[in-house]
């Protein structure tokens, strides 16, 4: 039975989390059919074959160039039927998660989001989910024949398993009623590493003393090819935009490396970073609670340490 | 204008999470329960709309009787009446089915809730309700302004924002900074005691999703401290020990 995987792209590139979704479906035992909606580079779509997609459907209708959730759900419901697929896999995102929810509701599928590992199929079909904002996991049985699985970052390992996939155009009738939500405009940071996708995150807190000192963190981030984040007080005070706020009520990140500078480590902030593989804390207060959650720590003045760290990384490259 | 605000009853964000009965149930010992923080933003925006241009605000919670103090708090903040669907909120599809049932019957212009509950974090109930009712759903909404039968919204996306326009009715999953959280005043608390809170039995909804057990992440090892005058050592450890550079 084929598995359908919805892939998203950002700035012309397939997102890493979508590649992980393809790898996940392949590891489930595929055959994997990937589907991309709206404008996409053909070479990027063919490249999905490397991670296990045998076939790629491309619904290139220009009405799909904007991420309209109801329209996207319509296309995926049809594609599941046409491909005779019972399982849809995709990456959690501001687009993927609501689309997953609508597809599941429409098709009567068992739905799980924030899935962190491959299913156990010894008895039934059980996936592991991240819950309580990363503070716990649950094991959830999906018993309906149809299933929709939305993955958290790093749910599957990227391995090259094949060559170029065959890309096939895909057309679906899209009635106007699906476009009830109109996207008037959007603001998007361009050319920067996106925070939810980043492998390395450099985050600053109140200890940075003001927005004028962020250049130093951006310099470090650039050297590491990292995204920049911040604590809640920093975004509340308007030093940084809200989409950089990492924490319980902000973005939850799961990078390889999280560097926290001048952040004390309130439990609400930790909730946004506890899926990080390695945490470095730099703070002048040796009693800052964040050190307890860290792998490496330096007690000292951020304004002295950050430039030194940036230099040391350049030297080590 | 009729607004439905769906709230969750969840452990306070500072709670330590533990499980009992062989990791099959959440351990409520010593845990304080609150209105879900995102739901609190949704409620605050509903009350702002009510204060600015008049509206009735109904609160809905799916939960057993011990969620009533949380519901009364929402009434104290300014909601007019409440519905409690008497059932454990076991999964998103079940909860969404209950909300859709009452939303349909109530003829609401606007259905607000948090972007996700902070216990199960699924973040899908608003979308499922939208699908069940055949109306648009938008989440996470950071700004919501009504303009007659239309609304202008800002939605957070990865690395930025989208500005949207949609006709009423629709469902919105809310987050900061859509409104400032409201703290109930004494008059609100007093009047909340007598505001109507209707208890109804759930409709059956089979989701094919069942939580078998819970697990806590493995404990974190001790932090390794590096002297401030030896920053290159940190880079060395990140590269050769943690292997993250």
Automatic annotation (TrEMBL), chain A:
Protein name per Swiss-Prot or TrEMBL: Electron transfer flavoprotein subunit alpha/FixB family protein
Residues that bind FAD: 206, 262-269, 283
Keyword Nucleus in annotation: no
Organism: Chryseosolibacter histidini
Keyword presence, Electron transport: yes
Entry-linked Pfam families: ETF (PF01012), ETF_alpha (PF00766)
Similarity-based family: Belongs to the ETF alpha-subunit/FixB family.
Coiled-coil boundaries: none
UniProt domain Electron transfer flavoprotein alpha/beta-subunit N-terminal: residue ranges: 3-183
Any one of the GO BP annotations: fatty acid beta-oxidation using acyl-CoA dehydrogenase
InterPro entries referenced in this protein's UniProt entry, alphabetically: DHS-like_NAD/FAD-binding_dom, ETF_a/b_N, ETF_a/FixB, ETF_asu_C, Rossmann-like_a/b/a_fold
Cofactor(s) needed: FAD
GO molecular function: electron transfer activity; flavin adenine dinucleotide binding
From TrEMBL, chain B:
Keywords associated with the record: Electron transport, Transport
GO molecular-function terms, A-Z: electron transfer activity
Gene3D superfamilies: HUPs
Protein name: Electron transfer flavoprotein subunit beta
InterPro entries: ETF_a/b_N, ETF_b, ETF_beta_N, Rossmann-like_a/b/a_fold
Electron transfer flavoprotein alpha/beta-subunit N-terminal domain segment(s): 23-209
GO annotation, cellular component aspect: cytosol
Family according to the record: Belongs to the ETF beta-subunit/FixA family.
Top-level taxon of the source organism: Bacteria
